[in-house]
């Protein structure tokens, strides 16, 4: 008789190996958890910061982040929605300045920004300045808009999004 694998709804965020079943939004929630685990394995004490506009096409992303709040906080990942794309992008850019001041408690902060297409246009000034400033040595920022528009740490990704900063 074949024994069935034990499966839990929490596997989508907690399973370290093997097969998991999750939606695209759940994959975006899992992404910072995986980055934190990779950093820990590399001996880095990093934190995460996620901000974006709640009216973006990723409208259920914020709900999924709030549902996973305890798990995110346990892994030093903070979700702080922005009032608009500009303020959210500015907040993620600010997270990359952790090493500029004495007393930092982490080696770096990885950040995720999300918004909608018109908000990207409005936020180009902060995105441009953040790209010029770059990220902290152990920080990476990425962005995404809508379904499938994403980048991580290497500058603008076409008309649907731009990365905040650059990095490892």
Task: Provide a quick synopsis of the model.
The protein is α/β, with parallel strands linked by helices. It is built from 7 helices and 7 strands. It has helices at 11-14, 24-41, 61-67, 69-74, 85-95, 117-122, 124-133, and strands at 46-52, 77-79, 108-115, 141-145, 149-152, 154-156, 162-166.
Tell me about this structure.
By secondary structure, this protein is α/β, with parallel strands linked by helices. It has a single domain (20-166), classed as Rossmann fold (3-Layer(aba) Sandwich). It has 7 helices and 7 strands. The chain has helices at 11-14, 24-41, 61-67, 69-74, 85-95, 117-122, 124-133, and strands spanning 46-52, 77-79, 108-115, 141-145, 149-152, 154-156, 162-166. It has a 5-stranded mixed beta sheet with strand order 2-1-3-4-5. Helix 5 runs parallel beside helix 7 (124-133). The chain is globular and about 60 Å long. It starts with 10 loop residues before the first helix and ends with a strand.
In the CATH hierarchy, the architecture is 3-Layer(aba) Sandwich
As an assembly, this protein is single chain
The biggest sheet amounts to: 5 strands, mixed
> Roughly what is the average pLDDT, rounded to an integer?
80
CATH class: Alpha Beta
| Total count of domains | 1
Total strands: the figure is: 7
Query: How is the CATH topology named?
Result: Rossmann fold
Low-confidence segments, ≥5 residues, pLDDT <50?
145-168
Order of helices and strands: HHEHHEHEHHEEEE
State the distance separating the first and last CA atoms.
48 Å
Strand order of the largest sheet: 2-1-3-4-5
> Rg from C-alpha positions?
16 Å
Q: What would you call the structural class?
A: alpha/beta
Estimate the helix proportion, in percent: 25-40%
How many helical elements?
Answer: 7
- Percent in strands: 15-25%
**Shape designation:** globular
């Amino acid at each position: 008789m074949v024994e069935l694998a034990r499966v839990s709804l929490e596997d989508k965020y907690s399973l370290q190996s093997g097969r998991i079943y999750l939606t695209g939004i759940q994959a975006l929630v899992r992404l910072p958890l995986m980055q934190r685990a990779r950093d820990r394995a590399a001996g880095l004490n990093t934190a995460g910061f996620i901000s974006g506009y709640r009216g973006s096409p990723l409208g259920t992303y914020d709900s999924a982040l709030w549902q996973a709040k305890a798990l995110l906080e346990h892994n030093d990942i903070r979700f702080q929605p922005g009032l608009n794309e500009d303020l959210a992008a500015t907040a993620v850019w600010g997270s990359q300045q952790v090493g500029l001041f004495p007393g930092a408690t982490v080696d770096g902060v990885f950040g995720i920004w999300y918004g909608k297409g018109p908000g990207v246009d409005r936020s180009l000034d902060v995105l441009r300045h953040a790209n010029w400033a770059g990220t902290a040595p152990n920080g990476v920022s990425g962005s995404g808009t809508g379904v499938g528009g994403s980048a991580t740490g290497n500058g603008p990704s076409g008309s649907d999004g731009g990365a905040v900063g650059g990095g490892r």
